[in-house]
Design goal:
The protein is α/β, with parallel strands linked by helices. It folds into two domains: 55 residues, DNA polymerase, domain 1; 289 residues, Aldolase class I (TIM Barrel, Alpha-Beta Barrel). The protein has twelve helices and 13 strands. The protein has an eleven-stranded mixed β-sheet with strand order 12-11-10-9-8-7-4-3-2-1-13. It has a two-stranded antiparallel sheet with strand order 5-6. Helix 5 runs parallel beside helix 6. The two termini are 23 Å apart. The chain binds S-adenosyl-L-homocysteine and iron/sulfur cluster (SF4). The site of iron/sulfur cluster has 12 residues, from helix 4. The site of S-adenosyl-L-homocysteine has 17 residues, from strand 8 and strand 10.
């Protein structure tokens, strides 16, 4: 394995120090950063603003690619595009680009390969935890798609950390990646256009609150009583609803930002009117929004999404309590690119059906 460091794992300051150490004039640091994050160059030889000797030196000291593309697939008339990458160690990482009819383009990125949280309905959870991604690897998922979009003169509208993994279990690297992409002299992607989704690691929600960042926060709730939530989301045994909701209330009070709650609707599990009423009671008075996600099928979980009228009833109960709520339209199901369907490992082993995926 190549032991040169990955250039996107280094901060602007660290890269500037290296160039200074090499005896380069100070303006080279700005040129390097702009080349990486604004021109979106992905090879040392593209830095034609540098003398050849410096390009060679960059090449000797750094690699410009850490994730390699293994599979690429499209669904929804090309509006959904999923890429399966491998880390140098061979761990799978999936990233999904979703275009909307209104022209908005959302990228769903991964913070880990696999996930150790074991939510029963989630294919990534069934894979188990494989590895934390580095800040550079999180950045690289974004730059890969940003380069593609640049060819169409388009840019991303939003980035959601809702792919594989629990971002609050790899928080330092996730935040570093966001900071790097947010830098005004580089990629300039505003904090408000990022969303971090968590399964509900209460102490990390508190830590995040204290940072007073403008990044959006989504909490995966799925059940309004501890007994059911612990069955669906095992981490609830450690951070039960009372503790979780307290951290959420603190977040809203201190940041004055609206919080999103995700609720995967599973037929005859958490789609009853009673759960909807309980949820409304739980969220009473909280500045929030509920995203209802009809369950996407995954190989290891035999349940289904509720019928349309049950979804509408659930939604109506929330609305009658003046809780804003939307139902998320399924995306990318034919290529296993929907929420909770990212399970590259099983698919590679032939359990989840790569059949419809085109090999690059
Ligand atoms: N680990 C984080 C972020 C990644 S999961 C979290 O749990 O929030 C992103 C979202 O996909 C979560 O809301 C999760 O509950 C949802 N999800 C998982 N499995 C799903 C499935 N089978 N169908 C629909 N959504 C699912
Ligand atoms: Fe992990 Fe989120 Fe899937 Fe739960 S839903 S297993 S936390 S990726």
């Amino acid at each position: 394995m190549d032991d040169r460091p990955f250039i996107y794992d280094w901060s602007k300051e660290e890269l500037a120090q290296i160039l200074q150490h090499w005896g380069e004039p100070s303006y080279r640091a700005g040129q390097l950063w702009q080349g990486l994050y604004r021109s979106l160059w992905s090879r040392a030889d593209q830095f034609t603003v540098f003398p050849k000797s410096l390009r060679q030196k960059l090449n000797e000291h750094f690699v410009f690619e850490s994730l390699s593309v293994v599979n690429e697939s499209f669904a929804d008339q090309g509006m959904t595009h999923k890429v399966l990458f491998h880390t140098p160690e061979g761990n799978p990482v999936e990233t999904v680009l979703m275009r909307s009819d209104d022209g908005r383009i959302t990228l769903c990125i991964s913070s880990q390969s696999g996930c150790g949280m074991g939510c029963v309905f989630c294919a990534t959870g069934h894979m188990g935890f494989l590895a934390n991604l580095t800040a550079g690897q999180i950045v690289e998922q974004v730059l890969y798609f940003a380069r593609l979009l640049k060819q169409e003169n388009k840019t991303l509208s939003n980035i959601v950390v809702m792919g594989m993994g629990e971002p609050f279990h790899n928080f330092a690297q996730t935040l570093q990646a966001i900071d790097r992409l947010n830098d005004p002299s580089g990629f300039r992607f505003g904090e408000r256009r990022f969303t971090i989704s968590t399964v509900g690691i209460a102490p990390m929600i508190r830590k995040f609150t204290a940072l007073k960042r403008q990044i959006n926060l989504a909490i995966s709730l799925h059940a309004a009583d501890d007994e059911l939530r612990s069955q669906l989301v095992p981490i609830n045994r450690k951070y039960p609803l009372e503790v979780l909701l307290e951290a959420c209330r603190e977040y809203v009070e201190q940041t004055h930002r609206r919080i999103s709650f995700e609720w995967v609707l599973i037929h005859q599990v958490n789609d009853s009117r009673e759960q909807a009423y309980r949820l409304a009671r739980l969220l009473k008075g909280l500045l929030c929004h509920v995203n209802l996600i009809p369950l996407n099928p995954t190989p290891g979980y035999r349940r289904r999404a509720p019928p349309q009228e049950t979804i509408e009833e659930f939604k109506a109960v929330l609305q009658s309590h003046r809780i804003p709520c939307t139902v998320r339209a399924p995306r990318g199901l034919s290529i296993w690119a929907g929420c909770g369907q990212l399970a590259a490992l099983q698919q590679e082993r032939g359990l989840g059906g790569y059949a419809r995926m085109s090999l690059v």
